[in-house]
Amino acid sequence: MSAPVLECHDLTRHHPGGVQALRGVSLRVWPGDFVAVVGPSGSGKSTLLQLIGALDRPTAGEVVLAGRDLARLSDRALSRLRAETIGFVFQQFHLSPLMTACDNVAEGLLYSGVRHGERRRRAAAALARLGLEDRLHHRPQALSGGERQRVAIARALMGEPAVILADEPTGNLDSVNGQLVVEILRELTADGTAVVVVTHDHELAARMGRRIELRDGLVVHEAGSGRQ
Prior knowledge:
By secondary structure, this protein is of the alpha/beta class. It has a single domain, classed as Rossmann fold. The chain has helices spanning 45-52, 75-85, 101-106, 116-129, 145-157, 175-189, 202-205; strands at 6-15, 19-29, 34-38, 60-65, 68-69, 86-90, 163-167, 194-198, 210-215, 218-223.
């Protein structure tokens, strides 16, 4: 029986001014899980994503990622863990307009010690996996929204992460491209990658294996199995 790749225990986060973004969230995510985190604006979704992505530290509670307690890691160790274990996908794509799709993806291994030529070879393979082999040399402005999001997913995959964290990955896409992105993310779970998607779209969330609903910083409902 596999161990969880991600665990949160009684996670709280207080922001300046007394705002309680999270008020005791506990959850487990296993390899191959496809998880939607839903809730209205201000429910704590983005805060939770930042904490499990090692982009912020909790006020109290514990985050264990790939067997490592994040509170025990230095900033340098956290940066390395992010690079090696987590892939991030954002609503806004965050692609450099001055670089080709291939070079944008290759940047995902920029600090890995992998030589430039090998980075570009892996980037081309990742783009081909997502059906973009004929877009390697296109810059983002020459790509559709769906193609840009697929480039962003390819970049997130470069380090072969154990967990993909996606923040509203379909928010800027039409329904057809949004569905395509969801299916791509679903396919990644078949290889054992855990995918956690933050979204306000309940229709989108209903197509995932698990749904965790936050409200006022608390988990108020969970549907679906914790194991795939």
